[in-house]
């Protein structure tokens, strides 16, 4: 019925009827197209084309302002002096646009800017990457963002170097961000426990934490202390925490055991790097995988110690898994990869640089079931994959959006490419 009403509206409004004494003629009235149809058509345009189409008329501009289109646009400010009278802020300050996703890279923050008070109310995701920023400047920026949902502080060592513990005994932020759900401190090696505490206290409803690629260049004792502190936060936040990422962060079996022993922790996304050889008695990674049966996203990139036994446990314990990333898991062989045939919900599979996998594992693990759910498949640097196995990709993965075959010199030839 809804479709029939839409067709009726299109037929009624698509053409304007003009009449003079002798001639009847019609011309298109695209301005009167229903907004539902315009939004659907705009989905096929890239952001720059949508911006151009928005200049046609008011109704097209309204379709351009559809909230999902606005959220798909990121404002990226790179390597500038952050002042209102300089480029590009001077032009942005007179803009009618608003931005939900702002990324700042390699920027030194100086004097107060009106940019944040002007645009902060609409920002939902904010990223600082390799920026020179201090605690008081960060606090003065965040206070203008009541709707902020994701905060990313990537590789900002100056923030933590200048942030001393003694200052926090008298200075408080007086800032609470109830909408903030995701906090990332990825690629920061120098933050301490009191830095971490102040940041997580900003977000009483935090359900996603990313501390990937951290603590790699500090002494082992300090690393253990910080990992224990993070583990305690996970324990106290177990009722609401759903996404935890420690990809590239050195962790040991003791940490994994502690994570596995947290009762009532039910994660949806998990990222880990298993560095140590998996012990035969009380293996933390195995117990953790057995406990987290609700996972839909699992990233085990660069887990050089991950073996076939762990992969078998994944296939047995996590039937709802949709994303499985095994990039550079060199210990995985055909025996382990065959086990993932039971994971029928997979939509994203990454086997890049798993050099021990051959045609037998791919045929036994990937090509035995209907894989029409898979949208992204990464098979780069699989030097033991033949052109015959690659040809089967064209038959088994009919709805792929991404296919990565970088470095597969043994399997790429004219015939396999033509099949794909």
Summarize the topology:
Blueprint: H1 2-13, E1 15-19, E2 24-28, H2 35-42, H3 47-53, H4 58-64, H5 67-71, E3 74-78, E4 81-82, H6 89-92, E5 101-105, E6 108-109, H7 115-119, E7 125-129, H8 135-142, E8 150-154, H9 157-161, E9 182-184, H10 193-201, E10 208-210, H11 220-236, E11 243-245, H12 253-260, E12 269-271, H13 284-291, E13 297-299, H14 308-317, E14 323-325, H15 334-337, E15 348-350, H16 359-365, E16 376-378, H17 387-396, E17 402-404, H18 414-419
Parallel strand pairs: 3-5, 4-6, 5-7, 7-8, 8-9, 9-10, 10-11, 11-12, 12-13, 13-14, 14-15, 15-16, 16-17
Antiparallel strand pairs: 1-2
Helix pairs in contact: 2-4, 12-13, 13-14
Protein name: F-box domain-containing protein
Pfam families: F-box-like
InterPro entries: F-box-like_dom_sf (IPR036047), F-box_dom (IPR001810), LRR_dom_sf (IPR032675)
Structural class computed from helices and strand pairing: alpha/beta
Radius of gyration equals 26 Å
Number of strands: 17
* Span of the ends, CA to CA: 40 Å
State the name of the first-level CATH class of one domain. Answer: Alpha Beta
Low-confidence stretches: none
Strand order of the largest sheet: 3-5-7-8-9-10-11-12-13-14-15-16-17
Number of helices: 18
Helix fraction, binned, reads: 25-40%
Largest sheet: 13 strands, parallel
Oligomer designation: single chain
The outline comes out as globular
CATH architecture of one domain: Alpha-Beta Horseshoe
Mean pLDDT over the full residue set? 88
Report strand %. Answer: 5-15%
In the CATH hierarchy, the third-tier topology of one domain is known as Leucine-rich repeat, LRR (right-handed beta-alpha superhelix)
